[in-house]
Amino acid sequence: MPDLRELLSAAGFGDVRTYVQSGNVVLSSSDSPSKVAQTCAELIAAELGLEIDVVARTRDELAGVVRRDPLGSVAANPKRYQVTFLASELEPETVRRIETAAAGKERVHVAGREVYAWHPDGVGRSKLATLLAGRRLGVPATARNWTTVTALLALADEERGERGAPVGA
Question: Can you give 68-128 as a three-state secondary structure string?
Fold first, then answer.
């Protein structure tokens, strides 16, 4: 993570912070989230040799994700409650596949460029979790558990409070 922070700072992003060893970054930029994601993916590939999907949200978009919380009334364990962040909205057929993949007590809710999923029995054997973690969605995507999502928002809020500037995450 120190290499990633250094790389992004050297590329001109401001206030670069990482959250644990998970590839989560909060930074400031005047660029759009899609431009931030593209630039980060290109830098990571060129400098670190990793071809990964990067998805970015503004601080306000991330706050909207937390505020929406459509499964909060059933999701009792934040480590089993995930949000999949999508680069763009899913095709209707893909949404149907996701909804069909939820088994047993699992719940799923697709809201624009996010998919909220509750995995009460864990993600290890969940077909839904496997679908959401893979590239079969047809768009770049990355999933984070609720603990990470709310921690990233807190980090973005901390940064915003200190600098008064919008933050991309």
Answer: HCCCCCCCCCCCCEEEEEECCCCCHHHHHHHHHHCCCCCEEEEECCEEEEECCCCCCCCHH
